[in-house]
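hey
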């Protein structure tokens, strides 16, 4: 059955791989993007998730064209890395407002229709950094760690309505964001990973699609690491 799927930040990297995975399975996929030209093949809706009104308008357009969102993947996020002593309050707040409060906005809006339908799948994209921490990423790590508590609270709140809420925590993934690192930086990162390589975006997407499937109907409140063993024990 073709479902209405929304992937926020689905125009590149991990988000695009997730959108493609659902589309290949026959779902109707909408993506949000904030800037640039969106990829073809999806219902692309320009939306800044830090703006509640833009989120509302995006959902109205998606509902009109694809029906109520049945699967939500909250992937949109930003980084503003800096050592704490040099990190501005604005840099800290901006990352929290996008990665955490932005997720709250899109989940809350999707929740309305899911409650009426008494079913739904919500997957939040966190990060191994949210579990392990990383120097220079206190704002990013705080926002991604917070998604775990947020999702588990919602899993308890919504479980009786057949709505599951889970987290996928990727490690280092081979995307445009990581390709800008120097060879020395990339080599240093790989040395920390038991599987000794970066993840491919499609490997993250496969876990997301599984959590949204019928096979995962009894999984909720889980944190699934896709990190090559980097964060084991966290």
């Amino acid at each position: 059955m073709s479902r209405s799927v929304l992937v926020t930040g689905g125009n590149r990297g991990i988000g695009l791989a997730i959108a493609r995975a659902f589309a290949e399975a026959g779902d109707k996929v909408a993506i949000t993007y904030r800037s640039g030209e969106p990829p073809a093949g999806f219902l692309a809706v320009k939306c800044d998730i830090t703006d509640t009104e833009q989120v509302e308008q995006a959902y109205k357009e998606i509902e009109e064209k694809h029906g109520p969102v049945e699967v939500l993947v909250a992937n949109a996020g930003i980084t503003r890395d800096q050592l704490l002593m040099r990190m501005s309050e604005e840099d800290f707040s901006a990352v929290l407002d996008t990665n955490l409060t932005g997720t709250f906005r899109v989940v809350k809006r999707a929740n309305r229709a899911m409650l009426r339908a008494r079913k739904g799948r919500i997957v939040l994209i966190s990060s191994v950094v949210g579990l392990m921490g990383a120097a220079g990423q206190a704002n990013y790590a705080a926002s991604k760690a917070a998604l775990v508590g947020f999702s588990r609270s919602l899993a308890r709140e919504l479980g009786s309505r057949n709505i599951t809420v889970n987290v996928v925590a990727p490690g280092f993934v081979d995307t445009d964001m990581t390709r800008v690192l120097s060879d020395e930086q990339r080599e240093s990162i790989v040395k920390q990973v038991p599987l000794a390589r970066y993840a491919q975006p499609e490997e993250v997407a496969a876990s997301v699609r599984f959590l949204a499937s019928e096979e995962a109907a009894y999984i909720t409140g889980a944190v699934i690491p896709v990190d090559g063993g980097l964060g084991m024990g966290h």
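The chain is about 45% helix and 15% strand. The domain at 4-226 is CATH 3.40.50.720 (Rossmann fold).
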